[in-house]
Design goal:
With about 190 residues, the chain is mostly helical. It has one domain (about 5-185). The protein has helices at about 5-25, 60-80, 85-105, 115-135, 140-160, and strands at about 40-45, 110, 175-180, 180-185. The longest helix is centred in the middle third of the chain and has 25 residues, at about 60-80. This is Antibiotic resistance protein VanZ.
């Protein structure tokens, strides 16, 4: 497969994964990772780094680290395609802005200023990494992105058949603690 075709396929596939996981989670399910009904929301969060004050160490780690990590491969693929760290970062930012706008306009998620920041930072880091490692890794990045895209499609097709609904725990209720796999009210 020629380099340009493989590069375009990898970048297009990974962008489709990003858009699907950020804006279309209301329309599909992978196991029981999320409830599609809970994804229909319209909310804007303008306060930077507000999750740091959520009272949970996990939420900022998951939100900020997840957004950063999610956009690193995009930055890598954009750099491989464009050969410019600045252009890769700007395109990563542009995709992030587009996702946040779509989420708000169509009530498909929560628009958050932190998402823009950490997505862009992830795209920049990915571009930096691809630049540092050089062209010798281009084919590796392409095939990894294509593999991620194929795995994602398989997971979507399998959908709710993955996992056991009886094993799903609702940890969002603040008045319940888990003891021996049984929710028990706090005293």
């Amino acid at each position: 497969m020629p380099h340009r075709v493989r590069s375009t396929l990898a970048l297009g596939g990974y962008c489709a994964v990003i858009v699907s996981l950020t804006t279309f989670k209301a329309f599909f399910q992978i196991g029981y990772l999320w409830n599609p009904e809970n994804q229909r929301a319209r909310d804007i969060r303008w306060i930077p780094l507000d999750d740091l004050f959520s009272g949970s160490w996990f939420k900022p780690l998951f939100e900020y680290g997840g957004n950063f990590a999610f956009f690193v491969p995009l930055g890598v693929l954009l750099f491989v395609q464009l050969r410019s760290k600045r252009a890769a970062t700007l395109w990563g930012f542009a995709l992030s802005v587009l996702v946040e706008i779509i989420q708000y306009v169509f009530a498909l998620g929560r628009t958050d200023i932190d998402d823009l920041f950490f997505n862009t930072l992830g795209a920049w880091f990915g571009a930096w990494l691809a630049q540092r490692l050089g062209r010798r890794f281009d084919a590796v990045w392409h095939w990894l992105a294509i593999a991620v895209t194929v795995v994602f499609v398989v997971l979507v097709v399998l959908g709710p058949r993955l996992g056991d609904p009886d094993k799903v725990k609702d940890l969002s209720k603040p008045d319940a603690v888990m003891l021996d796999d049984t929710p028990v009210p706090k005293t």
